[in-house]
Design brief:
Strand order of the largest sheet: 4-3-7-6-5
Number of helices: 11
Order of helices and strands: EEHHEEHHHEEEHHEHEEHEEHHEE
Shape: elongated
CATH architecture of the largest domain: 2-Layer Sandwich
Number of strands: 14
Largest sheet: 5 strands, antiparallel
Radius of gyration: 35 Å
Number of domains: 4
CATH superfamily of the largest domain: Histidine kinase-like ATPase, C-terminal domain
């Protein structure tokens, strides 16, 4: 028996211990000599690096103390940091402050052997301060049965959340359209009775009498209500106009020539219309209504302050599903019409509701709240979409995408039926 250490506390080894130690030392010497284990470790590390660098998701690894010991290129691109700025740093620095207590609790639970859900939806903070919604998928790494660190995969949810919000808005508008259509039909039947009996009663009372004037007010109000019903039916997409191939740039010029005289001098009208944008299959009267509504809203946003009203028309090719400006669009060719103003803009809470019927930010008596609802209904019925980009204090841009036709033949204006006449 061999003894080592001081005389008070000797450490004793048996012959068996020495023999095993010599065998292990010989094995280590052989491994170091031929380099097999070293090469295997390097090869595994290279393979791991290739796999993580080709992932679309951001991946990083933290040790027991929470320091970042590995990050892949996707995390650099997502957050805007260089790898050197993250390695060795506390991993919690890339999270929003309000989620840190929960993450600390999860860390303590993991390294104390408790079971923790590997999934978490939260937000990361980029180098420039942007909050990025992500879905985390985590796993614990072990060495000799003990947890040594955590590997985290973060998937950017920005596009998915935008698509979900657009889908919810589309479903809401579809439900509102169905409701508006049903109400409009019932209300139209009631109005027909009111207007019919009012006209019959007018014939039985002296003209210009007090009763006659009151009935005229009833008739006028009923006719206005009938116009509202028509707008509701247009919003619900239950009316189909007369469609034909149409050069939008000619119709836009016609509308702008009428608007120019009506706009105040404080509003500058600009236009950039591509005559080669192509044709669309559309009802000219409805397209006229769409443009007038959008320009009227833009003028209202700049009323009192002045600004610039800009109308653009061009052709765009949407070739990739990932590059589409709206989830309801499919890859293809479109004619794009945009109306931009430099008015007061809108908050996000208002922007989400602007296509709802009867929702308006205008004062009482200045609008019915159906203008943009009708615009949305008409555009959707034509197989297109409308998007709105607005920032408070920086104006609003409404953009319409309509499917572009391949044939060059198109009408330049609505076809008007000739007025019937007699013969002398």
């Amino acid at each position: 028996m061999l003894s080592l250490g001081d005389t008070q506390n000797p450490v004793r080894f048996t012959a068996r211990d020495v023999e095993q130690g010599l065998v292990l030392a010989h094995q280590i010497a052989q491994i170091v000599e031929n380099g097999t284990l070293f090469r295997q470790i390097v090869q595994l590390q290279e393979q791991y690096q290739v796999v993580t660098e080709t992932l679309h998701d951001a991946v990083f690894v933290v040790d027991r103390e929470g320091r970042m010991v590995f990050v892949n290129g996707a995390l650099e691109r997502l957050l805007g940091y260089r790898r050197e700025e993250l390695l060795g740093q506390e991993g919690l620095r890339i999270y929003t402050p309000e989620v840190i207590p929960e993450l600390l609790a999860r860390r303590r639970a993991v390294f104390s052997g408790q079971s923790v859900s590997p999934y978490l939806q939260t937000q990361l903070v980029s180098k420039d301060g942007r909050r990025i919604p992500v879905e985390l998928s985590t796993a614990t790494m072990h060495l000799a049965g003990q947890p040594t660190g955590r590997i985290v995969a973060a998937r950017d949810l920005t596009v998915r959340l935008q698509l979900e919000a657009a889908l919810r808005q589309s479903q809401t508008l579809q439900a509102l359209g169905t409701l508006a259509g049903g109400v409009a039909h019932d209300f139209n039947n009631i109005l027909a009775v009111i207007l019919g009996y009012t006209e019959l009663t007018l014939r039985t009372v002296p003209e210009h009498s007090v009763t006659w004037k009151r009935l005229q007010h009833i008739l006028t109000a009923g006719e206005r209500a009938r116009d509202v019903v028509r707008q509701m039916l247009a919003f619900s997409r239950q009316t189909v106009g007369q469609r034909q191939p149409l050069h939008l740039h000619l119709l836009v010029r016609e509308v702008l020539s009428l608007l120019r005289a009506a706009l105040p001098e404080t509003i500058i009208l600009r236009q950039a219309l591509d005559a080669d944008a192509g044709t669309v299959l559309a009802d000219a009267t409805q397209m006229h209504q769409v443009l007038v509504n959008l320009c009227t809203n833009a003028e209202h946003a700049m009323r009192g302050t002045g600004g610039v009203l800009e109308i653009r028309l061009d052709a765009v090719e949407c070739l990739s599903e990932h590059a589409l400006p709206h989830p309801d669009l499919r890859p293809g060719a479109y004619v794009r019409l945009s109306v931009r103003d430099t008015g007061h803009g809108m908050e996000a809470s208002i922007r989400e509701r602007i296509f709802e019927p009867f929702f308006t930010t205008k004062e009482v008596g200045e609008g019915t709240g159906l203008g943009l609802a009708v615009v949305h209904g008409i555009v959707a019925e034509h197989g297109g979409v409308i998007t709105v980009d607005s920032t408070p204090g920086q104006g609003t841009t409404c953009t319409i995408y309509l499917p572009r036709r391949a044939d060059p033949q198109a009408s330049t204006a609505p076809v008007e039926e000739p007025v019937p006449g007699g013969h002398a």
